Amino acid sequence: TAGGSRCSALPAPSQGVTENARRRLRELDVGDKFSRLPLPRAAVLLPLLVRGGRLHLLLTVRSMQLRRSPGEVCFPGGKSEATDKDDIDTALREAKEEVGLQPEKVEVICRLTPGIDKINNLVTPVVGFIEDTFQATPNPDEVSEVFVVPLEYFIKPLNYKTFSYKTSSGYLTRIHCFKYDDPEHKRSFKIWGLTAHFAVFLALVIFRERPTFEVDYDLDNLISSSENNFLNLYASIYERKKSNL
């Protein structure tokens, strides 16, 4: 499995809740299948943890000091560096830099189908389990807040809207937008764009339930439909790149 030697065992109480998730995620592991595509690379960590017997996702809020997307919700992550061995290394390094999550405290499970951000970075989501006792120490230069959301919220949200978006290459896609009222921080967070895209796909993979909103996947063939969607998006960008040469 992806990063199999780079994980630490979770405490026993979490095993029951996580076992099905592990199995389903490993079925959709893309490994380094898309690593040779000629786009700048980036990776994000999708940190799963168990609280109250339910799976949760850890998310961050980007610092207002950042030039790109200040104040937006995202996963820990960023651009790959020359010293990174692969996307897993990138995601773990960035999570350590941004929220103080030590790489050995992450049980890496898989890499899912990548996405392409608005500046045409190829972004690979790396899924891993972390302990529910993890206390984030946000780097204030990059992260202003850290919070968790029940994973099932991304298939059964209380506050959701969607809109169509045409990329600069002319590809039409669906944008998910969630508003989550966090009881711990006592405020609302807006989760949208590529972050919401990854969260929705992760929830679909693990729960295998039809969401309360429309998605651009064949739910009976998640692997092939997610890869086809990605390849169509990539093709539209790459054709535009070639036409600009």
CATH fold name, please? Nucleoside Triphosphate Pyrophosphohydrolase
- Structural class based on helices, strands and sheet pairing: alpha+beta
Parts with pLDDT < 50 across at least 5 consecutive residues:
1-5, 7-13
Work out the count of structural domains: 1
Biggest β-sheet description? 8 strands, mixed
User: So, CATH architecture?
Assistant: Alpha-Beta Complex
GO molecular function: coenzyme A diphosphatase activity; magnesium ion binding; manganese ion binding; RNA binding
Family: Belongs to the Nudix hydrolase family. PCD1 subfamily.
Subcellular location: Peroxisome
InterPro entries: CoAse (IPR045121), NUDIX_hydrolase-like_dom_sf (IPR015797), NUDIX_hydrolase_dom (IPR000086), NUDIX_hydrolase_NudL_CS (IPR000059)
List keywords for this structure.
alpha+beta; Nucleoside Triphosphate Pyrophosphohydrolase; three-stranded antiparallel sheet; 26% helix; globular; RNA-binding; magnesium ion binding; coenzyme A diphosphatase activity; manganese ion binding
